[in-house]
């Protein structure tokens, strides 16, 4: 099973000056079963940005393109509606029980109508994808807080996800989340330990994130329960803001869920009207 990982497309003012057609051609040259997009598809959650990001994603030649929200995608009270219209509309959203309180501001946009699902502003979902005789479960978490840049996951949603994961059969589980759960920078998730507990409980092997515009690959091994997971942090695929890391990038992971996992970093720079690509095998 092969996965291609893009992140932080940032359509709108933060979008790069690079050629998207050339980038799409490069992405489409990889033999991939799933493309994952770990958030910040827009700059300011404007409808025009959502629409442009959606057009880009629709031109990726892969039948399984999974996206999650980034903090920049959640600056508008209509963000969740535009995300579902232009970017990705999950078959079934995960809802918290409505009778409890929420830590996230505007988890339900209109608090007077919290029983109405159309006012629910988080995009959390599970997606199973069958490739050959193997089933992959993608646990897709919305770590974004309305009009804030730091990350938080609603605990009651993690509980609901856990119940539904337990009811699902899969060979390999992966987790998609915009903010890092490994706390390497100030941009990390506020309650990352709760997500790590979910990872350990359900033996999730790989977590994919973005947000920082920096690449990082880290493994964590829990000695008590003897479970190891890897976090793949992707730099930005098409933002002009590459101050921390002087290149744009995406990852390509080959043989996910098998012993012979291969990891490729594809980085590129703008050269005139062209892009200069460099592919490096990391594992
Ligand atoms: Fe972000």
Report what the structure shows.
- The chain has 5 helices and 12 strands.
- It has helices at residues 20-27, 47-58, 79-87, 155-166, 192-201, and strands at 3-6, 34-37, 65-67, 125-131, 134-140, 172-176, 206-209, 216-222, 227-233, 248-254, 262-271, 274-281.
- It has a 6-stranded mixed β-sheet with strand order 3-2-1-10-11-12, covered by helices on one side. A 6-stranded mixed β-sheet has the order 4-5-6-7-9-8, with helices on one face.
- A hairpin with a 7-residue loop joins strand 10 (248-254) and strand 11.
- The structure holds fe (ii) ion.
List the helices and strands and how they pair.
Elements: E1 3-6, H1 20-27, E2 34-37, H2 47-58, E3 65-67, H3 79-87, E4 125-131, E5 134-140, H4 155-166, E6 172-176, H5 192-201, E7 206-209, E8 216-222, E9 227-233, E10 248-254, E11 262-271, E12 274-281
Parallel strand pairs: 1-2, 2-3, 5-6, 6-7, 7-9
Antiparallel strand pairs: 1-10, 4-5, 8-9, 10-11, 11-12
Helix pairs in contact: 2-3
The helix count comes to 5
Question: What is the CATH homology-level superfamily?
Answer: Metallo-dependent phosphatases
Provide the CATH top-level class.
Alpha Beta
Present as ligands are:
fe (ii) ion
How much of the sequence lies in strands comes to 25-35%
What's the CATH architecture? Answer: 4-Layer Sandwich
Specify the overall morphology: globular
Give the proportion of residues in helices. 10-25%
